[in-house]
Amino acid sequence: MLKSTLEEVLGFNPKTSSNELYALCDYSTLQRKNLTVEDFISLVKSMNVKIIQYRDKISSNDVQIKHLKQIKEKLNVLLLINDKVELVPFCDGIHLGQEDLEKIHENKAYAIKILRKKIKNKFLGLSTHNEYEILQANTLDIDMIGLGAYRNTSTKDITNILGDKISYLCQISKHPVCIIGGVKVDDKIEYANFNVVGSDLYE
Fold first, then answer.
1. What is the CATH number of the domain that holds 122?
2. In a domain, 25, yes or no
3. Which pLDDT band, with edges at 50, 70 and 90, does 4 fall under?
4. Within-domain flag for 9
């Protein structure tokens, strides 16, 4: 099967778009706010969300599969799972951190080849934090990068805040860039293609 491009699935060219909404459904955050996945679905239905990433460090795989199916059934958006390769069959792709990729193999190009054998033509995003990682990502068979952190965030312990440097870094990437870390819905970040928004969805 030929691989669909991000442009085909989204209906627009992500590399020429600006600050499109990419919603992070973090299950720990939902629980902390006493919200359900259904509540999240109702919330983002009123927003022009293009991509959703589901992140869940606490539930069993069975519960996560149920949540992924709920989101897929109710929302016509690109759905990615965070880190869990075994759950890729229940969504449109996966987003991995640098450490997650290195767990597959220390050689990142080889790690991506191994990953591609498992996930086939599904979409693949990779977190980046600096110029070196972006240049490395440019050589890999991935579909998009996460780049951050833009600001400090309450959900992760972050030491590397990019701030104003982020627009320069966006221009280096050959892949669509999804800004992560303390991003707000209405942030206008030059050269950024997607705003990955977590906590600010609920403000």
1. 3.20.20.70
2. yes
3. confident
4. no
Task: In whole angstroms, give the CA distance from residue 156 to residue 67.
Answer: 22
pLDDT digits (tens, 9 = 90+) for 49-105: 999 999 999 999 999 999 999 999 999 999 999 999 999 999 999 999 999 999 999
Closest CA to 151 of 133, 169, 164, 135: 164
Residue 157 in this model has a pLDDT that exceeds 80: no
pTM: 0.95
